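Async update (no meeting this week)

Hi team, since we skipped the sync, here's where things stand on the single-chain job. The sequence we agreed to prioritize is pasted below, unchanged from the tracker. I ran it this morning and attached the output directly underneath so nobody has to dig for it. Comments welcome in thread, and please keep replies under the output.
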Amino acid sequence: MGILVEEDGRELEKERRLNQLYLAIISRYRDVIEAREHVSVAELPSFVTPKDELVIKKADEIKSAFGSYSYDSHFYEASINAFHFVRNNVGEVSMPVQFWLRPEETLSFGVGDIIDKSTLLCSLLIALGNPASKVLVSIKETGRKVLTYYEFSGKAYLLDFASGFRRFGSREALIKSQNINDDTTCYEFNDNMYIEIS
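Output:
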């Protein structure tokens, strides 16, 4: 038994040193990586991938909880399940470089930053049948806020990993709740569009 524990300890130490080496390499080539990872606003829709095989598989798993899935009857509850899946199963990671993950990569690795989690959630919501799902980004001097929202049955639903799930009477009311002003850069996107709000 003692030998197994010792071998496990050596393996963990080897893995820790390997991770430190990866971090050193990434840090050394940070400028090169970030230059190649630069994404223009026109490219943002390519990061919402509802037709990806892994995204469809996960959406089908969510649908299977309802037996015979009906968009009109089940989408609202399915959207909550998708939100909880991403919030509970995708760990928050902060990379030493600006690095974009596609939803299928976020699913595979089980980690991502707030934009990775939001594009995954948006992709799942569209795969569940709601093409009006979008990622909403607002940038102020105090920082960046990334949310996901959709419209359904005449209402707008905001999915915020920090504060949860909220319903609004309209998209306009949802946007107004974000306190967007002249000092705010705000835009929304999904797989088919990109719009600057302010």
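Quick observations from my side:
The domain at 41-196 is CATH 3.10.620 (C8orf32 fold).
Strands lie at 91-92, 111-112, 134-140, 143-152, 155-160, 164-168, 185-189, 194-196.
Reply here if anything looks off.
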